[in-house]
Specification:
- By secondary structure, this protein is mostly helical.
- It has one domain.
- The chain has 15 helices and no strands.
- Helix 7 crosses helix 12 and helix 13 packs across helix 14.
- The radius of gyration is 22 Å and the shape is globular.
Length: 333
């Protein structure tokens, strides 16, 4: 998977570079600069999404052991930044956010179980989001063939999600731990099987809290709806305003395609290609569509880069604490 992510990064950047060269770097730069400093408002209108996603994840914990909201927020922010900017196939960030909570005192079993369910909720919400986009595409009769293709893609994604749920029900952590033990014969890994059973039990318990599960899904879906604002605002600032319905369709389908191409880090090239194709349906020229896609990437510099820095700071502090503890233990001896 790591090799696939690096290949995806190279291919994605190649496509992105080719699209910019096709439309002209000077022309695209001129379009972006025409909005001036106002373009920095785009990440601000998107920012509530991070807070809403943090609330989603918090609801997936057992209320008796749920971490404080701000710890959840910071961990979610770091995990999102890793998934966005690093070639980790949208999985590494989930590990990072669970690890952050563990470093801050959350029980590893609860952190792991909630992270698995949170990832499942993310996928389910992507399906709902895609349904909204395809429905708008069909309703407006912009491109019936594309709407049919989208419906087929949603069905395939739904089948994959159903398979993931079946594996979780069968005991995903026990399956992984038992398989690793059979291959390696390691006593250490064998000792993990019992703990894996406990994580699987917590996953089942999370799904049993249906009210909180539904609420978490609605919070994350609401976050995606909020993201529509960045497309609408960016198009307006670039001097090519579109309606909210068109912005929702653009955001929904482009983000769904980007999520489907998870092996391409940050969907480089994929997002831009999607905007060019879909933008044409709402009357945007390729150069404007490309500039629009790049405009909403401004948030990666303002929100995601600081998230990576904060992650490194948290890991650095944890490393220093471990070294200090080891030194103190050595001095006792």
């Amino acid at each position: 998977m790591k090799i696939a992510s690096y290949i995806g990064l190279i291919v994605g950047l190649g496509i992105l570079t080719g699209l910019i060269a096709w439309q002209g770097a000077a022309e695209i730069g001129s379009l972006l600069l025409s909005s001036g400093w106002a373009l920095l408002l785009v990440p601000i209108i998107w920012l509530p999404c991070v807070f809403m996603n943090a609330r989603c994840w918090q609801l997936l914990f057992d209320p008796a052991v749920a971490p404080g909201y701000w710890r959840i927020f910071y961990a979610q922010w770091m995990g999102r930044s890793v998934n966005t900017l690093l070639p980790v196939a949208s999985i590494g960030g989930e590990v990072v956010k669970a690890r952050a909570l563990i470093l801050w005192g959350t029980d590893a079993r609860h952190a792991s179980a909630s992270t698995v369910v949170d990832k499942t909720v993310q996928v389910i919400v992507v399906i709902l989001w895609a349904v909204a986009g395809v429905s708008l595409l069909a309703w407006t009769a912009m491109d019936d063939a594309l709407a049919i293709s989208g419906a087929i893609g949603i069905a395939m994604l739904g089948a994959g999600t159903a398979g993931f749920l079946v594996v979780q029900r069968a005991g995903i952590f026990r399956i992984v731990a038992a398989s690793a033990h059979r291959v390696t014969g390691s006593d250490f890994i064998g000792g993990l099987v019992g703990r894996a059973d406990e994580v699987d039990r917590l996953i089942h318990a999370t799904y049993a809290r249906r009210g909180r599960l539904v609420a978490a899904t609605l919070w994350r879906l609401g976050g995606l709806v909020v993201q529509t604002g960045e497309v609408w605002l960016a198009a307006t600032l670039l001097g090519h305003p579109i309606g909210i319905v068109e912005a929702l369709m653009l955001k929904s389908l482009s983000s769904t395609l980007s999520d489907a191409a998870f092996v391409v880090p940050n969907s480089y090239g994929v997002q831009e290609g999607a905007f060019i194709v879909l933008g044409g349906l709402v009357g945007l020229t390729p150069d404007v569509s490309l500039a629009l896609s790049l405009a909403i990437r401004v948030r990666e510099l303002i929100i995601d880069v600081p998230g990576l820095v904060f992650w490194q700071h948290a890991e650095g502090r944890a490393l220093l604490r471990r070294r200090a503890a080891a030194a103190a233990e050595a001095n006792k001896d």
